[in-house]
Amino acid sequence: MWIANARRRRRILLSIVSLLVVGLSGLVAVRALHSPPDGSAADLPDAQPTTALPDTSSAPSASRSSPHGDITPRQSTASTLARSAPPPIVDMPEPSIDVDDFPTEESTGVPTATQLRRHAGDIVVDEDGTLIEALDIDGCVIIRAHDVTIRASRISCAGSEASPFPIRMMDGYSNLKIVDSEIDGLGKAPVALYGNNWTADRIDVHNSADGVRLGDNTTLRESYVHDLAPQPGLHSDAVQVLHGRNVTVQGNTLMAYNPTLDDPLNGAIQTGQLMGPLDDVLIEGNYMDGGSYTVRGGAVPRDRHHIGVYVFRDNVIGPNCGYGPVDGVGAPVRWDSSNVWLDTAQVIPADGRSVDSRCTKEHRSRALAE
Which of 98, 127, 280, 290 sits at 20 to 30 Å (Cα–Cα) from 271? Predict the structure, then answer.
């Protein structure tokens, strides 16, 4: 399981263990008060008739927002209260999710110690097995070869005559790897990374209208997509899925919300207007924030017949949405109960419209007014 979700589960487990320890300590203390100092069995008085106490076993108990339920001491009889003090009440922290567990600028992009060599102009790769490493490229990269690797490099491109996209994997080629690199769309590129048959790990994508567009055999892992640059006629999404088989989006930070503009933009995951089949797709362990709906799953009449296996699980959603956290994630999309809100770890149901009030008030009001 990815680091962010493992840490979240570990915090919840520690809370439960702490609660059990407190309960056992209180039980030992009460037992000690009922035992004589020499450790022998206590002499109990002869049984006396007692007045029956009402059965409260089925009565509803008070509850808090803690997932552990009510932790108030159980009701005691008058004789027990006279001989012992109740175990202490300990306020247990609610399970929390730390956004710093997810990728940021510090954990993605070009490693700090890398010394980049500047390259002016586009690069067209047409030789199989090419390695592009430690370059600061002022231009776009067009891949027309197999088994190409881009490592520890920065690509800055607003689009060019050769390609409108900073990195474009042309059809018919396979196994492009992009590792520890930065893609800057310079505020004008429509999509920063485009094509089929690529894998990207720990990349920093920003300043384009859309972050990445996924196709067949594509994987985005432990990367940071943020500070999108909206453009007239385009809806800005961190990730777009318009078709594809064997697609994985795992352990990323996907920010549709632009804090500089204070604008949620369109979505962290946009699935819709499908251009072909969508199958064997996994969206797992990501932090996603922003969008009119943060996630659009594509399960709408126009598109659902294109969808095969499409799974969302262990994702965390932030508060900066407009209408709601999710839309179109009913059947045939599989929306797991492990998808939760950032601030409360509350489960987000597939009917995200029912919990849209958790969206930031200002963004929701603006969205409803439009």
Answer: 98
Pick the closest to residue 99 from 203, 190, 224 (CA basis). 224
Average pLDDT, the chain: 81
Q: How much helix, strand and coil, in percent to the nearest 5, is found in the chain?
A: 15, 30, 55
CB 317 within 8 A of CB 342: yes
Where do the DSSP E strands lie in 146-252?
A: 149-151, 154-156, 167-169, 176-179, 182-184, 191-195, 198-201, 204-206, 210-214, 218-221, 224-226, 237-241, 244-250
CA 55 to chain CA mean position, Å: 45
Integer CA distances (angstroms), 169 to 71, 200, 245, 294, in order:
57, 12, 16, 27
263: which DSSP letter? B
Dihedral of the CA atoms 242, 245, 249, 255 (nearest 10)?
Answer: 0
- Cβ atoms < 10 Å from Cβ of 11: 15
The number of CA neighbours under 13 Å toward the Cβ of 150 is: 32
For residue 329 the two structure tokens come to 């994630």
Q: List Cβ neighbours of 168 (8 Å cut-off, separation of 6 or more).
A: 140, 141, 142, 143, 194, 195
Tell me what pLDDT residue 251 has. Answer: 98
Cα separation, 152 vs 134, whole angstroms: 5
CA-nearest of 315, 328, 160 to 251 is: 315
pTM for this model (two decimals): 0.75
Which tokens hold the place of 244? Answer: 């594809």
pLDDT in tens, 316-349: 999 999 888 999 999 999 999 999 999 889 999 9
Question: Rounded to a whole number, what is the largest CA-CA distance in the chain?
Answer: 99
